Amino acid sequence: MKKQAYYNITFGGIGGQGIIKASELLGWAAMYDGYHVKKSEVHGMSQRGGSVESHVRFGKKIYSPLIGPGQADFLLCFHADEHPRLVMFLKSGGTDLVEYLKRAEAMVENPKHVNTALMGVLSVFLPISGPSWQKAMETVFSPKILDENKQVFQRAQGLVIK
Amino acid sequence: MAKKTSVQKAFLSGNEALARGAWETGLSVACAYPGTPSTEILEALSLYPELDVQWSVNEKVAYEVAYSAAVGGVRSLFACKHVGLNVAMDPLMTSAYTGVQAGFVVVVCDDPGMHSSQNEQDTRWVGIYAKLPVLEPSSPAEAKLFVAEAFALSEKFDTPVIIRMTTRISHTKEDVLLGQRTPCQPVKLAVNIQKYVMVPANARVRHDFIEGRLTRLQAVSEKSKLNKMEINDPSLGFITSGISYHYLKEVRPDASFLKLGFLYPFCDAKIAEFSKKVKKLVVVEELDPFIEDHVRQLGIKKARTKHPSFRTGELGPGVIEDVINGRPKNVPKLPARPPRLCAGCPHWASFSVLKKLGLFVAGDIGCYTLGALPPTSTLHTCICMGAGVTFNEGLRRAHPDQKIVGIVGDSTFVHSGITGLINAAYNKAKGIIFILDNSTTAMTGGQNHPGTGLTIRNEPTKRLDLKALCEVCGADHVDVIDPAGNVRELEELVSKRINEDALSVIIAAHPCKLIKR
Ligand code: SF4
Q1: What's the B362 CA to ligand 1 centre distance in angstroms?
Q2: Please, what are the domains in chain B?
Q3: Cβ–Cβ below 8 Å for B247 and A81
Q4: What pTM was computed for the model?
Q5: CA nearest to A88, candidates A112, A107, A68
Q6: pLDDT for B263-308, tens place per residue?
């Protein structure tokens, strides 16, 4: 992949799927790697099973925390029903990772790990170093669930055939 | 990229960054009542053990406690959502007169787009109305810097200072530089009757003072670095503030900018200077025409403005071109999944009974407001905090023979339902007030309140006994029932009480399913 000035990633799904946690992980990882990062979503009612959308942008200098229509480099969808609504964010030639949703679901034993698995997939496509991802996982996961999440993350990287 | 820096950074939301900034600036006391999108400010502050922080009973109380700490000589902060400020307006308006001993910052988070609010009011007008300075950060990193600026202004000019945030800034996360805390020496408590006792003779003097203070603040605004002019391509210039600045920079990076961070009092001379430097001038802001009206008042005729259809909702990178060109709003509405009560929520049982009995339900603010949506559709009014109680009374005064009940949550009842219940008893109103007691403030993510018997830091404290309280307020009957699994009993109870000539309270007590303790 050609090096870009910035990267835009749209996450979407429904409340309770760990989308906020996943985008948080990317935010910290990008920060540890020295990028300027902005992440935006909406809290509030989303907790009660409503649609959740999270946008992460990182690069040398980021202005808008929101990704405009047709501007996302990557779309990470956590719920198939939400996909049609989110696809408008993808830029032409952007990468839609929806095909990995089923594979991530099949790979994990605990459904709580689907979000971490999808992040493992995403990590293969992004210019963020392994140590920064590790450090980010240490920041966002409590010690009790850190190891299992690190394992899922690493195994999911193997799902990607580039 | 891997260019590592040695400075300490964290990935913080606007609310967390603001809290960090306040802590670094020597904050001592902070008070709030939870409210999206402002809740995380106090949650973040509660993690610093050296601070005195609290969930207050409501915003009026929070404002008074925090403000009087500043009168007492320590730096303090009050935070709320836009509608929460309405509850605190009484002390706010006169605190503008009385001023401070140590810095006092009022953080108000507006909610353009109404992600989780009952209206879309624009707090910037409060600056004009209360004659108080308003700062408006545009990002989490700025929220942290601006709060330090606000404390300095507050002390220098003897005034509360408003920081206006919006949901997009409160909840955006950004990498933010961290600094050290500079503790503050408390000032001695001194008697000053002329300044702090607002009887007419003293208040007249203070009113003169604050008029003069506004003039002096305007001079500061003119020179403030927070009002930043960026002259790039002079053929197009924007006057903007807050998050709109970043949307514009994204879409038109080469244009010229006047970004207003010290929003009010306005920097009139700077605005005039900027307007002369650019050929085409456009004012871009979310919600009300606050900057727009002022620019017009200054007689700057060439300023173009957004189409009035953009006075509602959030802006975003996708609509910025329409805004710049004065085109009406034209956003295709894609159906998003609506929120609903959680599976296993105790409120389902209460709503099923109310629905079955076909009652008119005066509602209130909380998760249970979702009872208005299908499949229950059994909540028929929702205006403001506490109105479940008072609407039962007013609607019955309009329709004495109709079967009406009021519902209110436990936290909301403590916030502003108690006075309504006393009023109902005193004025001989009848009916049922349902307190949906889930032992938390669930809507905003599960904060403690007096009924939980725990503080913001989960320390045990005096627990408010809701049943005893309702009895002394004058309710004829107070029944406590667990609605989950007892739907039949609940139905029998409501059927009985609704036919009595009495004022009843039914406390439907069952903990929130989502928020476990
Ligand atoms: S958060 Fe609690 S009170 Fe709110 S809908 Fe869910 S279970 Fe019910």
Answers
A1: 19
A2: 9-223 (3.40.50.970), 227-324 (3.40.50.920), 347-509 (3.40.50.970)
A3: no
A4: 0.96
A5: A68
A6: 999 999 999 999 999 999 999 999 999 999 999 999 999 999 999 9
